[in-house]
Amino acid sequence: xxxxxxxxxxxxxxxxxxxxxxxxxxxxxxxxxxxxxxxxxxxxxxxxxxxxxxxxxxxxxxxxxxxxxxxxxxxxxxxxxxxxxxxxxxxxxxxxxxxxxxxxxxxxxxxxxxxxxxxxxxxxxxxxxxxxxxxxxxxxxxxxxxxxxxxxxxxxxxxxxxxxxxxxxxxxxxxxxxxxxxxxxxxxxxxxxxxxxxxxxxxxxxxxxxxxxxxxxxxxxxxxxxxxxxxxxxxxxxxxxxxxxxxxxxxxxxxxxxxxxxxxxxxxxxxxxxxxxxxxxxxxxxxxxxxxxxxx
Length: 296
What we know:
Blueprint: H1 2-53, H2 58-62, H3 75-85, H4 88-119, H5 125-134, H6 140-153, H7 160-164, H8 171-182, H9 186-194, H10 199-210, H11 212-227, H12 231-236, H13 245-255, H14 260-291
Helix pairs in contact: 1-14, 3-14, 4-8, 4-11, 9-10, 11-14, 13-14
């Protein structure tokens, strides 16, 4: 009985201590939450202002004091004016072809190179991988003139080939996929080899499905990079019918800087596809980023 009473007292004291600790932890996290909310506001405020600006008229956008919310819905009116000024659907089509045409081959080529670096042993592997990583430190402005000369020599100016081919290979995609391949156990490929499966079959059938978060990350980031790319399409695609969204919108806004509501509307429409993609695949994107830094 004495032992039982002592046990009950210990349990009660533990409950009291836990009840005291929990509020203290909550109070300690309040400053962190406040700081995170503050930085989230700084990040999202321009985006929200742009989205709301697409529903405003020019007078509402330029009014002082500023009106955060639109007085009336002018979105369809602004969208009609944008379509009459620039061919938005052609810009979206060119950007979609550029983004998907770059991303799909990039997922295959870079993951295949990453698989070789992660699972094969050959002479000079580490040196070659370091050279690949070193290319990430070279600014694009350094190599854009030689790239342009190559595209000119192949007669690929103002073509989808000129937009897509130079953007397929990426040291960062190789690094990301290699880190994911390295986490997989050797027993998988050894069992597959015993069963008579070839190396490409091991790569495509067994290994690739197991690094789905990393591949979704490559898909999202590559699509996003191409969708928002301004400099390379501006260099290679100078004709109006080959312009992408970024350089088309840049020229549209540059010519009509006083029509802010139209600029907001065009920018908001161009942002919607990327927002939808991220909302659907954010779980895999976060998982791929989290596992890319794990050591062997």
